[in-house]
Amino acid sequence: MTKIELETGGSVWKVLAKEGNQVAVGDTLFILEVMKMEVPYEAPIDGEVVAVHIAEGDVVEEDQLAVEIKNQN
Questions:
Q1: How many CB atoms lie under 10 A from the CB of residue 10?
Q2: pLDDT tens string 23-54
Q3: Are 45 and 71 contacting, i.e. CB atoms less than 8 angstroms apart?
Q4: Residue 22 and residue 9: Cα distance in Å, rounded?
Q5: 49: containing domain
Q6: Core vs surface per residue 40-62: b (16+ CB within 10 A) or e
Q7: What is the CATH number of the domain that holds 32?
């Protein structure tokens, strides 16, 4: 299981990943707005999204858990 944690605080602008989605390395999972800049977060592995802990419009903090991906075997 790979856990995607936030590198910085900000506002969740767009969530593209949904539970059950298959993702590949480099797919954009969600986009944060940080100081008027869009910061995309990409999948670091191929796998299935098993949990999304953020929603569009959320104000989030550094190190907050955002998405969990189950490794593809």
A1: 20
A2: 999 999 999 999 999 999 999 999 999 999 99
A3: yes
A4: 26
A5: 2-71
A6: ebebeeebebeebebeeebebee
A7: 2.40.50.100
